[in-house]
Design goal:
By secondary structure, the chain is an all-alpha fold. It is built from three helices and no strands.
């Protein structure tokens, strides 16, 4: 059964969008988006917010690493 998504969690989920990124960075970002939505839809409690914040940090660093790797190649 899907959990009701708290408004604060819904706002956090917006930060996992990836459609604005170039395609090669979308490939890095999409798994984080998918996991964020899975967590938000199945779990409840303040821990979900903390988990999403940490997941966003990980996504941010992964996308940055991919972006930097591309610059090093070019």
């Amino acid at each position: 059964m899907a959990a009701e998504i708290h408004p604060d969690v819904a706002r956090l989920l917006d930060s996992f969008r990836y459609d604005h990124l170039p395609e090669h960075l979308q490939e890095v970002s999409k798994p984080f988006h998918d996991l964020a939505h899975q967590l938000a839809e199945t779990l409840t409690g303040p821990e979900v917010t903390r988990a999403l914040e940490r997941l966003w940090d990980a996504k941010h660093w992964a996308v940055l690493a991919a972006s930097n790797s591309e610059r090093e190649v070019n």
